[in-house]
Amino acid sequence: MEQLITVENLHKSYGSKTVLDEVSFTAQPGQIIGLLGPNGCGKTTLIKILTGLIKDHTGTVRINNEEPGAYSKSIVAYLPEKTYLPDWMRPVDAINYFADFYKDFDKDKAIAMVARFGLDMKQRVKTMSKGQQEKLRLLLVICRNAQLFILDEPLGGVDPAARAKILDLILENRAASSTVLISTHLISDVEYIFDRVLMINEGHLIVNKHVNELRESGKSVEEVFKEVFSYAW
Question: Is the pTM of this model over 0.90?
Answer without folding.
Answer: yes
